[in-house]
Every structure is written in structure tokens, then in C-alpha cells.
Specification:
20% of the residues lie in helices and 28% in strands. It is α+β, with helices and mostly antiparallel strands. The strands form four sheets. Strands 1-5-6-7-10-11 form a six-stranded mixed β-sheet. A six-stranded mixed β-sheet has the order 12-13-14-15-16-17. Strands 3-2-4 form a three-stranded antiparallel β-sheet, with no helix packed on it. The radius of gyration is 17 Å and the shape is globular.
Length: 247
């Protein structure tokens, strides 16, 4: 399997839930609001023998040419957005789900950003996101999922096409899920915000921003142990320096 990180850049975030661009070479983290966290925003593409998988969809920002940033990154790697066959959504927080749809300002409506792909979303996560709303979720960007023909709503744990496993953890957020992809004796694990950075895997870290921080910590320890034993490749969505870590 081929893994391609699609970095959208480095940002700081605090209690305001605003993602503010950060230039590590020029900006001073100490000048940001107290409690600001430094994170990368990094969806992933995985090319398998069956699919071109997209894991989460980023912030949904557009570049100076008006092109969706995640589309441009795919194109830069020789992948047409229409070639993506599956979009696997860990959860619908705005920094993971902003690229789910695009707004046509002339028609004043949203369209799915990957109309040729099948989206996989936890039903309870969508219900919760639409009810909860801002600032963590942006309902107008994800409402389109409700009635789209190419969205598969899943519940709990299960498998997709016999080689992708999903597990509802309810750790970082109430209906967060993680994915394990197995092909040709290779195992790729995407923990999204349950396991966002390499450093959190190696320490007993409990974050106040998690729905169930203790469960997150315990799951990370469990996954890290399994990963060492079975030679997993970990994908870290918010890690500035280590997007991919392989045992």
C-alpha cells in the first residue's frame, strides 16, 4: 500500500476553536493565546489494490486560485479528485470534515467534494454534529451527507470490503471511530484524534479537550502495544514532524 500525507499546514488552536496558520520559521508560539496547541492538519491518501482511500478531508480551505486545497494536493500527487473511491471519516469536527463539501456561490448550495467516492460516516456522529453545531462542527458543510446517494451510514464496529475495519471508540468525541487497513501482510492504523501525535502514544497523556481523556490514553497504550507486536504503520493527523510511523 502507498501512503501519501496531504499536509494543509501548521496551525495553532486554543479554546476559541479557531485554526490560525503558524509559520515555525517566523512565528513565536509564546505570542499566541495562552493554552494554544501547535498542530498539523494532515489528511491521508492510501492507494491499495482495490481503492484510492481518503482518510478525513481537512479544513476545506481553498487556495489563491479558488481550488479546494485538498483537491490541489491530490492533483500535485498525480491523483484526480474523481479517482478517490472511498472517503473514510473518523469524525466530523471542522478540521477533519471541512473538505467534505464545497459551496457553489452562484447556486448558493453545497456539493460533495468527491462525488465519485463512497463516504463512510457513523450515523450517530452526523446526528450529534448537526445537533451540537458550532464551534466544533459546521452544520451547513455536512448537512449534504444526510441525503447523498454515495454516503454509507455505519453504526458501531464492522468491516468494509473485507480489508478495512472500523471501530467506534467514543473517546476523543462521543462517536469518533478509527480505521485499520490490512492488505498483503501490511497493517495501517489511523487513529485520527484518538491518536493524533506520536508523542501521545509514548506517554500516559490525558487531554482535557477529549470527551473521555482517560479512555483515549488507555486506547493509545493498547494500540501502541499491538502496533509493536504486529508491525503496524501509524498515521498521525496532527503531528508536525511524524505523520507516518512504522514498526
Amino acid at each position: 500500500m502507498k501512503i501519501i500525507p496531504l499536509s494543509e499546514g501548521t496551525f495553532t488552536i486554543d479554546h476559541s476553536k479557531l485554526f490560525i496558520p503558524f509559520n515555525p520559521d517566523a512565528d513565536d508560539l509564546q505570542q499566541r493565546n495562552r493554552g494554544s496547541l501547535l498542530v498539523e492538519i494532515q489528511p491521508f491518501v492510501i492507494i491499495t489494490s482495490k481503492d484510492i482511500l481518503l482518510l478525513d478531508t481537512g479544513l476545506g480551505f481553498v487556495n489563491e486560485n479558488g481550488i479546494l486545497q485538498i483537491h490541489q494536493h491530490l492533483i500535485d500527487h498525480g491523483i484526480s479528485p474523481s479517482d478517490v473511491t472511498k472517503v473514510l471519516m473518523s469524525h466530523l469536527h471542522k478540521d477533519h470534515a471541512g473538505g467534505i463539501s464545497m459551496k457553489d456561490n452562484i447556486l448558493d448550495r453545497y456539493f460533495l467534494s468527491f462525488p465519485s467516492a463512497t463516504y463512510y460516516v457513523q450515523q450517530q456522529e452526523l446526528d450529534f454534529a448537526l445537533e451540537k453545531g458550532l464551534p466544533s462542527y459546521i452544520p451547513e458543510e455536512i448537512e449534504i451527507l444526510k441525503d447523498a446517494d454515495n454516503v454509507v451510514f455505519i453504526e458501531g464496529n464492522g468491516e468494509i470490503d473485507g480489508y478495512i475495519s472500523y471501530e467506534l471508540t467514543g473517546a476523543h468525541s462521543p462517536y469518533h471511530q478509527v480505521f485499520t487497513i490490512r492488505e498483503d501482510n501490511e497493517i495501517i492504523f489511523f487513529g485520527a484524534d484518538d491518536a493524533p501525535q506520536l508523542g501521545q502514544m509514548k506517554n500516559k497523556f490525558i487531554a482535557k479537550y477529549d470527551y473521555d481523556g482517560k479512555k483515549c490514553m488507555e486506547l493509545r497504550q493498547e494500540w501502541w502495544k499491538k502496533g509493536q507486536e504486529d508491525h503496524w504503520t501509524f498515521l498521525f493527523y496532527h503531528d508536525v514532524k511524524n505523520p507516518v510511523w512504522k514498526f
